[in-house]
Amino acid sequence: MRRRKKTVRYSAVDLSFSCSFDPVRDFRESITEMVTAVGVRSWEEMEELVYCYVALNPPDLHGFIADAFCSVCSCRQRS
């Protein structure tokens, strides 16, 4: 029997991090909240979440998003 791939959907939230004093921290907090709220448990779900952040934010914030995701992933691996 084939197992169906679980599809995770994230709601689009209009968040503005471009005026933040510390956008990496703000993204990290937002990502952590989403991981907890949605119950992200696999790497595939984390990839979908990062794609949503990239798709919903302008290119000048993508570096901050990448740094925040790396930080969240490294903290999750240690625990």
UniProtKB/TrEMBL annotation:
Its main location: nucleus. Pfam families: Ovate (PF04844). Keywords: Nucleus, Repressor, Transcription, Transcription regulation. The keyword Repressor applies. GO terms for biological process: negative regulation of DNA-templated transcription. Residues 15-75 form the OVATE domain. GO terms for cellular component: nucleus. Signal peptide: none annotated. It is found in: Nucleus. Transcriptional repressor that regulates multiple aspects of plant growth and development. PANTHER family: TRANSCRIPTION REPRESSOR, TRANSCRIPTION REPRESSOR OFP7-RELATED. This is Transcription repressor. It comes from Spirodela intermedia.
